[in-house]
Design a protein that fits this description.
Blueprint lengths: L13 H14 L8 E2 L2 H8 L3 H13 L3 E4 L3 E4 L4 H26 L3 H12 L7
Antiparallel strand pairs: 1-3, 2-3
Helix pairs in contact: 1-3, 2-3
Keywords: DNA-binding, Transcription, Transcription regulation
Protein name: GntR family transcriptional regulator
Organism: Anaerocellum danielii
Length: about 130
């Protein structure tokens, strides 16, 4: 079962919230290959968002290879190429780290302190939000 929570106070656009939550559920294995996603119209109605918003989320997920749409049958979780997904993950992490490194330099945080912070967070010494 698909589980999406939309935050009206988030700065993240709604279509990205939908896309990212579906992507996370696919990567976590909650939504498995062949799982039939709700139609764009049904999901839009359930989430109380526009059809255009859910359509954009589905289009981006399809471009990234996470879902496939079969005309007249529906939209399904794709057979994921784990190597490709891993590469996409590395690219996203690298992009996020660029911003973090830039911020660390602005605040004068040295590399060792930054690495210690990342290590502490990665090991789960405190909850991630």
């Amino acid at each position: 079962m698909i589980n999406i929570v939309i935050s009206q106070t988030s700065t993240e656009p709604i279509y990205e919230q939908i896309k990212n939550q579906i992507k996370q559920q696919i990567l976590a294995g909650t939504l498995k290959k062949g799982y039939a996603l709700p139609s764009i119209r049904v999901l839009a109605k359930e989430l109380n968002v526009s059809v255009i918003t859910t359509k954009r989320a589905y289009e981006e997920l399809e471009k990234e290879g996470f879902i496939v749409t079969v005309p007249a049958r529906g939209t399904f979780v794709a057979d994921i190429d784990r190597e490709k997904v891993s590469e996409l993950g590395i690219q996203e992490i690298e992009n996020d780290l660029k911003g973090i490194v830039k911020k660390a330099k602005i605040f004068g945080v040295d590399l060792q302190r930054l690495l210690e912070t990342i290590e502490r967070l990665y090991k789960g010494d405190e909850p991630l939000k």
